[in-house]
Amino acid sequence: AQSVTQLDSQVPVFEEAPVELRCNYSSSVSVYLFWYVQYPNQGLQLLLKYLSGSTLVESINGFEAEFNKSQTSFHLRKPSVHISDTAEYFCAVVDRAAGNKLTFGGGTRVLVKP
Amino acid sequence: GAVVSQHPSWVICKSGTSVKIECRSLDFQATTMFWYRQFPKQSLMLMATSNEGSKATYEQGVEKDKFLINHASLTLSTLTVTSAHPEDSSFYICSAGSPSVYNEQFFGPGTRLTVL
Q1: Which of A52, A81, A86, B82 has the fewest CB atoms within 10 Å, i.e. the most exposed one?
Q2: DSSP state of A85
Q3: Which residues contact A15 (CB under 8 A, 6 or more apart)?
Q4: What is the DSSP letter of A80?
Q5: Cβ atoms of residues A85 and A92 within 8 Å
Q6: Radius of gyration of chain A (CA)
Q7: Which of B8, B56, B13, B67 is nearest to B31 (CA)?
Q8: Chain B neighbors of A40, CB-CB under 8 A
Q9: Which residues make beta-bridge pairs with A62?
Q10: Could you give the count of Cα atoms lying within 13 Å of B53 in the half-sphere of its Cβ?
Q11: Do B110 and A42 touch (CB under 8 A)?
């Protein structure tokens, strides 16, 4: 079965500093990869996704993630964070050989300090 | 597009009662909907996959008689927590797959259930 590991449960960061959230998944021949953001007491919002093509994907609010097949990773980065980026971030994987089910990582709580 | 709603957004009930949570896809037809459960400061755990017109597929360890799922139409799936107990208190989130957006799930805002 697919598994997803987010190595950092919490990441404190100062405003305007860069941040990287790490995500590794168990090996599979073919996967789709997602990053979701969850604000307090809300559902999940898609931040960005990798389905195929360019291994570097970007969101409209400055986040980017790079699919690294050899390292089975999909780390999320932002060069300069805002207070409003304070939220929980979840990495998720769809194993294409196992249908459309999402497997989530444990989540990383980002706390942006002024 | 691809908006998913949940109702209610929060509910408080007494132990032993049943609670129904609705999940609706507002602007698309969802042949498949998913129900997740999220404990405080934890990740989402898939409970079951709901397919329109057929029985739901439950994940291992999820009691199908406890968590009744009905997917009667292409825009509505319901989760009923039967004979709720305090340990059922959690954040329940549904998602729906859109046929026009391959392999992406759209999430509802969640329902917080508190059982006293």
Answers
A1: A52
A2: G
A3: A81, A82, A83, A112, A113, A114
A4: S
A5: no
A6: 14
A7: B56
A8: none
A9: none
A10: 3
A11: yes
**Res B85 pLDDT > 80:** yes
Pairing relation of β-strands A4-5 and A24-25? antiparallel
Phi and psi angles of residue B104, each rounded to the nearest 5 degrees, phi first: -125, 140
Counting beta carbons within 10 angstroms of the beta carbon of residue A97, is it exposed (0 to 12), middle (13 to 18) or buried (19 or more)? exposed
The mean pLDDT of A1-18, rounded to a whole number, is 93
* Residue with token string 């997917």: B71
Query: Which residues, other chains included, contact B93 with Cβ-Cβ below 8 Å and sequence gap of 6+?
Result: A43, A44, B6, B35, B36, B37, B38, B44, B107, B108, B110, B111
Question: Any idea which residue has 């409970």 for tokens?
Answer: B47
Q: Which of A43, A51, A94 sits opposite B108 (nearest CB)?
A: A43
The string of pLDDT tens digits covering residues B4-54 is 999 999 999 999 999 999 999 998 888 889 999 998 888 899 999 988 888
- Looking up tokens 């073919």 gives A30
Does B44 contact A at CB distance below 8 Å?
yes
Does residue A41 sit at the B interface (CB-CB below 8 Å)?
Answer: yes
